[in-house]
Every structure is written in C-alpha cells, then in structure tokens.
Amino acid sequence: MRIDIFTLFPEMFEGPLNKSIVGRAQEKGLVEIAIHNLRDWAKDSYKTVDDKPFGGGAGMILKVDVIDVAISKIKNQKSKIILLDAGGKTFNQPMAQKLSKEKHLILIAGHYEGVDHRVHEHIADEVISIGDYVLTGGELPAMVVTDTIVRLIPGVIEEESLKEESHSKKGYLEYPQYTRPEEYKGWKVPEVLLSGNHAEIEKWRRQN
Ligand SMILES: C[S@@+](CC[C@H](N)C(=O)[O-])C[C@H]1O[C@@H](n2cnc3c(N)ncnc32)[C@H](O)[C@@H]1O
Asked: What keywords tag this UniProt record (predicted)?
C-alpha cells in the first residue's frame, strides 16, 4: 500500500510515522508513506494556500484549486481520497479494516478554519472525523488514521495479535491482560490466569 499525505505542516509528521511498528512496516516495504507540503502547489510567488471565506466570518480557508492541482499529480484510478474533517464520518475499526485493503490512499489534512467545501463535494471519496471534537489541524487525525490502517496490513503485526483485539468485532473489547509479578503492592492477578486450566481461562476471558 502507498499513503500520500497532504499538509501545510510536513514537519509535524517527522517521527511518529517513522518509529515503532509503522516505521518497521515502511522499512520492510509493506507500506510506503509520503508527506507532501501543499504550499509546493501554490500558484503565486507568495505561496498562497488559503483565503478569506466568501460571505465573511473568521479564519482562513484552504483553497480548492491548490488542493486539486496537488492531488491530480499523484492520483490514479485506484486512489482513495480522504479528507480529514470534524464533520466527517466517525472513524472506527471496521472503516480501518476496509481501508487497509486499498492500494493507494491520499489523505488531506485541513488547517485554520477548514477547507473549501468543494473539496468535500468534488475531490474527496470519503470524509473522516476522528471524533466529536475539534483539533487545530488534520495532521494528528491523518496520523491516527494512518497508524490504525497500517497495523492491519498483512505482515505488519502477527495475525494472532489482531484476532481478539478490541473493536475487531462489533461491541467486543479485549479481555484484561496481566504480566509478572503475580502480586505487586497487594494487587493480585486473577487466580484463574495462573491456574493453567485453558478452558477456564478461555471462559474468564470471554466473560471479561
Ligand atoms: C480548526 S479545524 C476546522 C474546524 C471547522 N471550522 C469546524 O468547525 O468543523 C482545522 C482542520 O483540522 C482538522 N480537524 C479538526 N478536528 C478534526 C476531527 N475531529 N477529525 C478530523 N479532522 C479534524 C480538519 O482537517 C480541519 O479542516
């Protein structure tokens, strides 16, 4: 899979997506992630990427023409274009599972007051929110969506780890997990997990 992320703040992505599991997935060639600065596609010498909203109001709106030209350069027939927006469909595990099967994702991170609505209407295939709150920009949401999707790509983490994970089935949360020591400050691990009785452990895990 390839993921292209368009942002006004590429430096925000330095680190998080290059470390740990997502970093290793890139090293193994299971995913290729590229970060693009939207400003590179600004048309004027001032590198203008935003403008005041028609009708008045606070803040600046990212321009549809800049975003369109930027994306046209790399999209192909298999690309799925996703706009990160607080008004979008709330992101969840089934959406991540579906998106992890795509060949090419393009993520657009908005900023300031938001993005010209024609991006929703004519460019994006999906509009995704990571929750019912407002962040300063779409950079953290793009990282959240990327991280969630990448760990589901076959080969990135062990199949076994994904099998009984929280949200892998509707209404399902993973059972509580413990490790050594068996007792710490009087806080004990549930007896059944130390019993070696696999049927009982399985039953306890299902209940919990
Ligand atoms: C300050 S927000 C704009 C908020 C917008 N004026 C509104 O009321 O919905 C700037 C950018 O952050 C991103 N953003 C903010 N909250 C988000 C969320 N919950 N999920 C996804 N993206 C979000 C979007 O890309 C948005 O264009």
From this structure: Cytoplasm, Methyltransferase, S-adenosyl-L-methionine, Transferase, tRNA processing
Q: Is 196 annotated as a binding residue?
A: no
In order of 32, 51, 124, 125, 135, the CA distances from 118 in angstroms are: 28, 14, 9, 12, 21
Residue whose CA is at the smallest distance from ligand 1 atom 13 = 138
CATH number for the domain that contains residue 54 = 3.40.1280.10
The 10 Å Cβ neighbour count of residue 156 is 20
- Domain containing 181 equals 160-207
126 lines ligand 1 (CB under 6 A): no
Overall pTM surpassing 0.85 (yes/no) = yes
Cα(116) to centroid of ligand 1, in Å? 12
Round to whole Å and give the CA distance between 179 and 164.
Answer: 18
* The pair of three-digit structure tokens given for residue 6, joined into one six-digit string: 């368009």
Phi, psi (5° rounding) for residue 161? -65, -30
Using pLDDT thresholds of 50, 70 and 90, give the confidence band for residue 168: confident
